[in-house]
Amino acid sequence: MAEQNKLEKIVALCKRRGFVFPGSEIYGGLASTYDYGPLGVELKNNIKRSWWKYFVQDRIDMTGIDGGIILSPKLWEASGHVANFKDPLVECKKCHHRFRPDKLKDTSKCPDCGGEFTEAKMFSGLFETTIGATEEGLVTYLRPETAGAIFANYKNVLDSTNLKIPFGIGQVGKAFRNEITTGNFIFRTLEFEQAEIEYFISPDSDWSSIFEKWLEYIYGFADLIGLPRKQFFNNEIPDKERAFYSKRTIDIEYQFPFGQDELWAIAYRTDYDLSRHQEASGTNLEYFDDTTGKRFIPHVIEPTFGIDRTFLAVLSEAYDDNDGERTVLRLSPRLAPFKVAIFPLLKNKPELVEKARSVYNELKKHFNVVWDDRGNIGKRYFSQDEIGTPYCVTVDFDTLGESDSDKKDTVTIRDRDTMKQERIAISDLKAFIQKSLE
Length: 438
Ligand SMILES: [Zn+2]
Prior knowledge:
This protein is of the alpha+beta class and 438 residues long. It contains 11 helices and 23 strands. The protein folds into 2 domains: 3-82 and 144-317, Bira Bifunctional Protein, Domain 2 (BirA Bifunctional Protein, domain 2), CATH 3.30.930; 338-436, Rossmann fold (3-Layer(aba) Sandwich), CATH 3.40.50.800. Helix content is 30%, strand content 27%. Zinc ion binds at residues 92, 94-95, 97, 110, 112-113, 115. Residues 8-337 form the Aminoacyl-transfer RNA synthetases class-II family profile domain.
């Protein structure tokens, strides 16, 4: 399958089955915005939950916060975003489309209409907003990254928990960037979700080995959500291109259908962030190490993840229509929007429907379950394969024990990937599905 063609097919599937819709579509759309539909919100939540469990809850040295989207503008001045979060832009004098000159192949004329460009002007990537109704309202910004609130709350977390260095704080949430370059579906959007970790270490620690351990731990997450390691590339950022305060940065790139691009990243940022916030806020952010009696500003290692990009990577990896007959999303059961679909063999037989309802109601207590009684069983399988439901359960006349009493209270369970069907007791269903989620 041609790769760009694959992206188009994924975009079409997302719209048709309710994973991702173009933003504000009934008003003609709004560029670089998308809405997650009924299945998209499930898949995205499952990605976020898996991330949170793996990176925050499973680790003794991690905790989490959920900071604000609107923070003091002083924080973004201290972090350098207000001064530096800017891109040069040129505007076409004819069609008024804007471009980043560094992303253009030919800077002499507009690629859309051939028109002449204006001089390049600096354009802030921050979304500005004003607090208060009066003209003298306080100007601040929608956060361009989630990390800010972690630094701002580092001291609160220390004081309210029994964590000691080394420890980390994780956060998942929305961030906003007034980006001019757009395209490739949900890869780059104005509003997006990030998962970030600030891992605080002593300046005396062996940062290089802690960095390596985090990098390997990050790849464990790729394994967990079904992204093959061979699709990744560690782009080691050379000295000259790194931020001056960072001693090592790796852009963790992924082979998307449209090409290789940044999915996640990890950086060793020294004590730059907390030093800047201490200086700008006037609040002492030193850590006191009660075993050595030393005081210091912690250094940080920062793993960062794009959730929407992860969503796109997961979908690209799972999408399979190679046999041309059926489309299957080979999602890990852990991420699948529905874990199991329940079908009554026929919808006009009340005794079948009633029995299937009881199976549905029981499993619903434990998993996200979907009911389907439309068309024939083959069509229902087709429909569930397309959205990645790992198992389909059919309640038939054997379930009722009408012809063979040995089969009473058993159902057919069909596996999405192998398409094999087996007969299992209703009482074993919960354990069977549970096992697939481990
Ligand atoms: Zn133009």
